[in-house]
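Appendix B, Record 12. Input sequence as logged:
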Amino acid sequence: MFLNMNALGYIRNWFAALGRVFRRELRHIIKDPGVLLFFIALPLAYPVVYTLIYNPEVVRKLPVAVVDESMTAASRDFVRKASASPSIDIYAYCPNMADAKALMAEGKVFGIMKIPGNYAKKLGNNQQAHVEFYAEMSLLLRYRTFVSALTDLQIEMISEITGEKLQMAGLHSLAGDASAPVKSESNFLGDTEQGFASFVIPGIVILILQQSMILGITLLGGTSRERRRLNGGIDPQEVPNAPVSATIWGKALCYTVFYIPMTVYILRFIPEMFNLPHYGHPVDYYLFIFPMLLATAFLGLTLNYFMKQRESAFIIIVFTSVVFLFLSGLTWPRYAMSPLWTWIGNCVPAVWGVEGFIRINSNAATLPEVARDYTALWLLTAAYMLTALLATSLLRKQN
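Logged structural output:
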């Protein structure tokens, strides 16, 4: 009975200490303009800025110069079909390539279509005809638009020419089906608009949640280290006699709870505001993102060990954003990475968060269908809880 009373007393005191740490850390956040900048202003502004940068998601009616050396009905028909595409706008006919290149150098056109003089002749002799296209490569989104439009035009022309040849050969019954011997239809799952923002923003917002939280936490950690140096190794604003475990859990829960409104805003309202994919159920991605926030909080508390001063957060954390973006698989698939980079990516909560959230948000996956990512986030939570416990204990021993 005596042992049970002691155990109950310890548990009661532990939760009381956790509550005091939670309240104290919340006051630190509210009173620190720098932390509020990272915890509120950055998550509020960055998703909007990034999405506006990538809007419009697709480019239409790109100006193109035409150099028609054939000057035949066949070449004019090709140009007419190209102009009918929603992606291409015939800006000007040029007598030679030099004039077309001058227009491109001035930024008036982004592509040059050159039709050689033997274009109609080769078509008439049942030979393969060539049309040259030159694209200005400063923006890959424009290049992708050109490639897609010209590929569709090529398929259309092949079907049309094949049908004409069959009619000339007297095979009228087959000519009617020649336009589409094999029908090709593209379905872009999770990104029906084929837009760059729809592709990249759902992943970037997860990175924003992680990086902004870590920056705020390490800013608080660096400030605490400065207070310790000014007060003989003691932080006067720390909860006295609080167990290390209660301290890290109180702080981690404070950061996680504080981030709930930002999470709802980023994951729920940003996609609706900009008409980005949002097919998953909110309950699924809220439950999924919770362990990522908790793992991120413990990771930030672990990194506090390396924060010698307030500015250390900018030096140590900011440069990792681009690295984490690549590790997430948004720009290069994770299965194509070397084992070393894959392992490093597995240690980053946002990498698993990006992978799972995109499946839920863009492809309407349920929580059981992202069980691998969900489990990995909880494992990271446990691992970084232990490292945060060790880092905080070492910090106290240094004092």
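Residues 196-230 form the longest helix (35 residues).
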